[in-house]
Design brief:
The protein is an alpha+beta fold and about 130 residues long. The chain contains 2 helices and 9 strands, in the order ααβββββββββ.
């Protein structure tokens, strides 16, 4: 009976680790963010901050002034990979589709910094409450 219990615990542990829950999902990348700052050789603060939505089903949208841009996302390690449905709609096409992820909080506001893997460019998003 003791052997069966040990085998059950081992299997349960293996099954839990196979679910693949990513540590960034725990931090809450899923939700609505506002894109208000970016850097591509010079830092720019936007007058209009479009909403960036990361959905549970790994899809997302950027609510631009005109039409929303649709994208699909996944996380591999600490890298966020974004693939847009139509590249010409992309905010991110300027530099990369792979970004290092950094979460931090200032004065009770959650921030998500996406730094390009390929260039020195970055985007700063603020979580909408």
């Amino acid at each position: 009976m003791k052997n069966n219990s040990i085998i059950f615990v081992i299997l349960l542990t293996l099954c839990y680790s196979c679910t693949g829950q990513n540590k960034y999902d725990e931090f809450g990348i899923v939700g609505i963010w506002r894109l208000c700052k970016e850097y591509h050789n010079i830092q720019a603060t936007r007058n209009y901050c479009p909403e960036v939505v990361f959905s549970d089903d790994k899809s997302g949208t950027i609510e631009d002034i005109d039409d929303p841009s649709v994208f699909y996302w996944k996380i591999e390690g600490d890298i966020l990979i974004i693939n847009f449905q139509k590249e010409e709609e992309s905010f991110f096409y300027k530099q990369s589709d792979k970004f290092h992820i950094e979460f931090y909080e200032e004065q009770g506001i959650e921030f998500l910094k996406l730094t390009s893997v390929e260039t020195s460019g970055w985007y700063l998003l603020m979580k909408k409450k």
